[in-house]
Amino acid sequence: MPIIKIALVDDHALLLAGLKMLISAQEDMRVVAEAQTAQEALKVIPATTPDCILLDISLPDMSGMELLPLLKERLPSSHIILLTMHEDQQYLKKGMELGASGFLLKRAMDQDLLYAIRTVYGGGIYIQPDMLKYMVGNKSASVNPQEKALALWNTLSPREQDVMIQLAKGFSSREIADACNLSEKTVATYRYRGFLKLGISRRSELVAFVMKIGVLS
Amino acid sequence: MPIIKIALVDDHALLLAGLKMLISAQEDMRVVAEAQTAQEALKVIPATTPDCILLDISLPDMSGMELLPLLKERLPSSHIILLTMHEDQQYLKKGMELGASGFLLKRAMDQDLLYAIRTVYGGGIYIQPDMLKYMVGNKSASVNPQEKALALWNTLSPREQDVMIQLAKGFSSREIADACNLSEKTVATYRYRGFLKLGISRRSELVAFVMKIGVLS
DNA sequence: CACCGTGTAAGAGAAATTCTTACATCCTTC
DNA sequence: GAAGGATGTAAGAATTTCTCTTACACGGTG
């Protein structure tokens, strides 16, 4: 079994240490370079020709987004996985366009990371399940639960979606009706139809649903 | 030289690993407990009577801010250092008022963390130099709304808090009663008393409230 | 044009919530 | 140690909200 050579770029010393420990514990992986700044990364990484680069988006001297194409230029065959703290669809899209092979939230669990590394090493693309909702309408046709839920959500009419959101926030039909200048009965209909389409029957299920697809703050 | 006993609470597996490695490498420190959720923390930490608890502010099941007084209550002599991702002066002030002994940004360097641990172990207060600017000139500043809301929240009994959370998640009294093996009427009483204490009367207000104080994920 | 999705809404029965009252415990506080 | 208060538990009655069915108008689309 070949060893996967990995380079780490993160200004966060503790996370760097954690990553290193985790990766070093794998039999088929080895950390061949680490850097805490973009400058350092450009200096030390190319000589090590890693198979995979874990790249933090926020670095002190340069954005990981800027560093990405520079690394890609020097190491066209290295697969780059972006690490980020926040669920930012902007970064996700841009990163993928710039040639990243993976996208991972830092709060990801160990297994996710290892799985991501092995996936991109094999030429695949790995994206955190949580983030996939931002990719909807994008070509990749992987059908996961999140995506299906979002598709289901989009079968609701605008009014229905609106009422569902308000309901999830705890508003009663009466409150929603007053806010929208509608009859309570009308709102009740939207509620009923929305529940019907979503295949649910209680407010708690609705809250869980909208949490899952992330249409609430 | 006595060994400093340290407990770690952070939902971030990688950071947890990094912290553990770093601390374990010190001759005078030992990790005696670690937890990834508030529940787990309350379960495993008290028995280990750590000298110092490193507590992440954002946890999946409860805010570190809420967990702090609970831990303080059980372990009055443990010094708690708050860890956070963001430079948030709100948290800093609140945390210090709630009895934290230290405040550290996660991007801190290793030395900072070790120095902070030794400082609070010796009875001192450690605050990240970067954060000190927020403390200038407002030692006992005005009680902010967040804080008042949290204080209000803490006037609720455990049962009441529990029911409030479930209600905010959209569960009905009946559902909560079934889940807790209580009479629906009992749950209704908790609901009523909780609403009374919080000065609210509708579910939507409750949702807004729990969102504000951050007791929901 | 007929059909379907959508926006709107009323009515009746079912369910949930509001508020009051009740009582036993446990814990302080005087 | 008795009184008082907060808490856990729960029932009853009045009120509100929700569920589900029915209804109709309107704009696309096959």
Structure summarized in a few sentences:
Two copies of one chain form a homodimer. With 217 residues, the first copy, chain A, is of the alpha/beta class. Helices cover 48% and strands 14% of the residues of chain A.
Helix fraction of chain A, binned, reads 40-55%
Count of structural domains of chain A: 2
Strand tally of chain A is: 6
CATH homologous superfamily classification of the largest domain in chain A: Response regulator
Task: Reconstruct the topology from this structure.
2 copies of one chain form a homodimer.
Chain A: E1 4-9, H1 13-24, E2 29-35, H2 38-44, E3 52-56, H3 64-74, E4 79-84, H4 89-97, E5 102-105, H5 110-121, E6 126-127, H6 145-153, H7 158-168, H8 173-180, H9 184-198, H10 203-213
Parallel strand pairs in A: 1-2, 1-3, 3-4, 4-5, 5-6
Chain B binds a DNA duplex (30 and 30 nucleotides) through helix 8 and helix 10.
List keywords for this structure.
Rossmann fold; Arc Repressor Mutant, subunit A; DNA-binding; alpha/beta; 217 residues; 48% helix; 6 strands; homodimer
Verbal overview:
The structure is a homodimer of 217-residue chains. Helix content of chain A is 48%, strand content 14%. The first copy, chain A, is of the alpha/beta class. In chain A, helix 7 crosses helix 9 (184-198) and helix 8 crosses helix 9. The radius of gyration of chain A is 22 Å and the shape is elongated. Mean pLDDT of chain A is 79; it is low at 135-144. The A-B interface holds A 11-19, 21-22, 85, 106-110, 113, 168-172, 175, 202-208, 211, 217 and B 11-19, 21-22, 85, 106-110, 113, 168-172, 175, 202-208, 211, 217. The structure holds a DNA duplex (30 and 30 nucleotides).
